[in-house]
Design a protein that fits this description.
Layout lengths: L8 E2 L2 E7 L2 E6 L3 E3 L2 E4 L5 E4 L4 E7 L1 H17 L4 H14 L8 E6 L4 E5 L4 E2 L6 E4 L2 H12 L6 H15 L8 E5 L3
Antiparallel strand pairs: 1-4, 2-3, 2-11, 3-12, 4-5, 6-7, 7-8, 8-9, 9-10
Helix pairs in contact: 1-2, 3-4
Length: about 180
């Protein structure tokens, strides 16, 4: 993600790892305006649908909250059908004049499925159960891919190590993590 506008809010790394029957999504806490850190403890990961779904967002905060609300409504309309709810949200996102202007991406997961949602209408399910979005997403994703096959590392350990690596590389990422997992502890 290129950060050319100094008046734009930036900063997010969201990582989803699925391993050993566990799904974990982590998000860092950094929010920047240009090259200034505005907040270091933002919560960019939350649970939805009575704690059966985890979602993390990258992009403009107000846009992300709008998307969380819309996704929650779709999940209420299609309970237990994460993919269908996400496809319905993506349709709205592409066709609604208001939603079309939102600048955000989401990583969404339940116990069986991990998805990336984008404003271009994409609903993508990665083959390996790993998702990295946001400024440091590619760094965290690369680290998670390298760590995933190491015996003895569970999903949460991989997330923590990969997010640390991303924070060490990406200036828009920090080590103040919000971590949610399924099944719930």
């Amino acid at each position: 993600m290129e950060h050319e506008n100094p008046n734009q809010w930036y900063g997010t790394t969201i990582l989803c790892v699925r391993k050993g029957g566990k799904t974990v999504i982590a998000g860092d806490g950094q929010v920047t305006l240009g090259n200034t850190v505005i907040k270091s403890t933002a919560k960019k990961v939350r649970t939805l649908a009575n704690d059966s779904i985890i979602a993390g967002f990258a992009g403009a905060t107000a846009d992300a909250f709008t998307l969380f609300e819309r996704l929650e409504a779709k999940l209420e309309k299609h309970p237990g059908q994460l993919t269908r709810a996400c496809v319905e949200l993506a349709k709205d996102w592409r066709t609604d004049r208001y939603l079309r202007r939102l600048e955000a991406m989401m990583a969404v997961a339940d116990e069986n499925t991990s998805l990336i949602l984008s404003g271009t209408g994409d609903v993508l399910e990665p083959e390996d159960g790993l998702i990295g979005i946001g400024s440091g997403g590619t760094y965290a994703l690369a680290a998670a891919r390298a760590l995933k096959d190491i015996d003895g590392l569970d999903a949460e350990t991989i997330v923590r190590k990969a997010m640390k690596i991303a924070a060490d590389i990406c200036i828009y990422t920090n080590e103040n993590l919000t971590i949610e997992s399924l099944p719930r502890k």
